[in-house]
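Quick question about two entries, pasted in order.
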Amino acid sequence: MLRNWVAYFLFFLSISITIYANDEILIVEKIIIKGNSKTDTAIIKQHIPIREKEPLDEEKVEFARLRLLSTGFFSDVFARIEKGSKKGFVNLVFEVKERGTLFFDEIHLGLSSVNSYWGGLSITDSNFWGRGYRLSIGTVYGEHFLTSRLKFLNPSIFGSKHRIGFEILYNDVSERTVDNKTDEVIELLQYRRLSGTFIHGLKLEDFIYGYFYFNFEGIDAKFMNKMENDPLDVKPGRSYLSSLSVGISKDKRNDVFMPNKGYMISVYYEIANGLIFSDYEYAKLNAEIEYLLPSFSDHSFKVRLFAGSIQGDAPFFKKFFVGDYFYFVYGKTTLPRIWGVNTSDVIKYKTVAMMGELSYAIPSFVIKDVIYKSYFYFTLAVSHTASIEEFRREEEVKATEEIITPLSFDIGFKADTEYGILKFSTAYFLDVFIDKF
């Protein structure tokens, strides 16, 4: 590790001295990639925001190195300069050390008061065929549900600014709750859902992407028992949902796994109506900001803000589920959904959601070629989910319609390993334990 830091320091020192000696500006003659046996060179260069024939900039070089690391294709990246073919020109060399890109990115195990067990996982290859394609397949099976998902993304079509992908999702679920008076489990709804989403992205400029989504899905629903003020908004029998969405994002974070510099902003708008053959008509708007605050050394100090709203008759699985927007709160046990499936007995689907989150992560240990980086983290969040009607008449809301505004927390461990991303969440463990026992 010390050798790496010394190498980086000498590299920047050599650039600084060379660039400013005699007021001479160095020009990048060639960008050379070394050390890659699996990943195509053209794919690597797509992640380097430096062009040949432009002045050498040490900040851009370091950013490019970090950006290559954040792809997940490499365990380490080194940068250096070599003499060019004529005075004032240099070759910029990136030497990469490839890592395994087939890994477990999600592992789901748990139990609750309405599902005695569930288990499953998702396997992803983030560099499929060495072309940077991202392919993910997974399934989770529980006592009263089955969910499966297939995702694919080509981040650059023929080296252009366009990216394309799709997602297929299947849910077969028995939605259940618990009677507060008798503690009896009540089956509310049986439904099956098959969803397909087409994704097109366009790189507008460095760090900024625009997105277009087309989603079409079929739903089969059968109500078993009806609740008063039933929150499970879905049409009985066969129905269809069709929606168009647009989004834009700017991502200047220096790492995907655990960034400690930069920021991310995204805005997403979805609309569904009869003109595109949908049985549901609604509009949905989400906005999210993530900003990395200054912190010690390689520590990560993050603030995240999220807000979303829905107008219209969106089905319940498109709404904001309360468990997705807080961590552990004593007395309020619910679990986040798994690919749209609610595994808990809490039936709270809302049309407005807001969340503010502070998270601090401290680097832990590294094991060569096994654990590339690991962190202990602490997260504190404030969240608020409600319906638009509850906002308008907040003082009249009944106890059964309470607006959830909890202060929640999580403490855990997260590691980027050769075999996948390992995460232990205290909040998830406590929610599962308290909900079941």
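Here is the second entry:
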Amino acid sequence: MAEPEFEIEVDDETYEVKAIKAYLRGELKAKDLHASLEVSRATAHRMVSRFKEEGAGGLISKKVGNKNRAFSSQFRSDVLTIVREKYADFGPTLAAEKLEEIHDLRISDEKLRQWMIEEKLWTDRKGRQPRIFSPRDPRPRCGELIQVDGSYHRWFEKRGGECCLIVFIDDATSELKLLRFVEHETSYNYMNCLMVYIQRFGRPEALFADRHSIFRATNPKGNGVRMPTQFARACGKLEIQIICAKTPQAKGRVERANRTLQDRLIKGMRLANISTMEEGNRFLEKYRLDHNRRFAREPLDPSDAHRPAPNADLRNLLTYAVERKVFKDLSLSYNKLKIILDDCPLARKAVGSKVSIVQTLQGDLEILYDEQAIPFRVFDKIRRVRDVPEVVDHKRLGSALALCKTISEVEPHHYKRNAHVLAGFRKNFRDPTDPESTRLLNPPRELRRAHNGRPRAPLGRHPIVICSHSLESNEKEFEKP
């Protein structure tokens, strides 16, 4: 049975048009018209006149499409021309700033962003295509590429503090080559780990790391040249190439290994009741062998790419080297030390020039000029102004904070320090040697009013007492290069 067909009639006329037509046909009076349109009598007559002259289009407001504050088409064209020619790779915010500073064209960054999107000069986040990281094939031989990374984590959970785990993993086999717990990710610790690695397996062809300042200089010189870092310079002596990844996905093998270690290793140390780095480093070798037995794979090429260790002593290759100028009195400064060179022809030749100060991982110093050693002696430590706090390098910040914690534990809070609310106005806090405390013991009303009921400044000085064993342990950390 065929379904009945219905014709749907669409009425395009607005209510105003129907009312005016009814008025013109005499079906509505004038007072009914302006009451129906909810306008005044004069406005209703103007609408009727426009309808007679222009039809239904005459009832549309003349303000439609008239943007009083809109930029002209010529201004829009000029702005986009400048952006296209000079600031094509600029973001909208920076481009708007440069347009105002250089070209004296004021426009909001949001409006410029809309124009740049319309002209395909800018792509917003919604329109950007997701970045695709295609996997690469692993290196065919063992030792051809070693991925290195440091992972900060609470490896001992609540049983110990946070530390860093340095990981060396082979790209060809996914085999953990070296694991080491250290306090911080520094060049000193990476050099120590590299020395242990070379002694065990030999020299790898390349190290694959992130763009940390240990592996890559962050601030190039004026000519754009990046000077090698201390670790990169030492690797250059060993003929080991350093490759820096631009994204974490590029070194995904070591990143995934860190994720696995943060699960399995933590639980393993919890079962073994390990809570210190020393115990953890002894446990790491056992865990490494078990991890490789489960997750390592065979390389595509069975040959080993490791090269034998160099004939020279590794301690003389993995060193810090800096340049210092020699003064006329054959002295130079290094690491808060004043060094005096022995009077010899080579030392006299070096006056006014720069010599290389080489420091081994064990702290031994050697001064070289034209690759020749100059005998020297340490004259004295450089004097420092009293009561001036030391500028602590960020890599030693953890040790400095540990020292501050030791000081606060040994010397607890006292009511007479830090302008405490009870300082000066209680008999049991009186210090006979402190005249300020004695004066404020029973202060008159004027003095209380001046101090608002309590003194505003610390009263007297209190010595800081430090445990000798805590100080020695922290000094050892500070003396590390």
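Reply: The radius of gyration is 39 Å. The chain has five domains: 15-59, 73-125, 146-217+226-295, 319-381, 394-479. Hope that helps.
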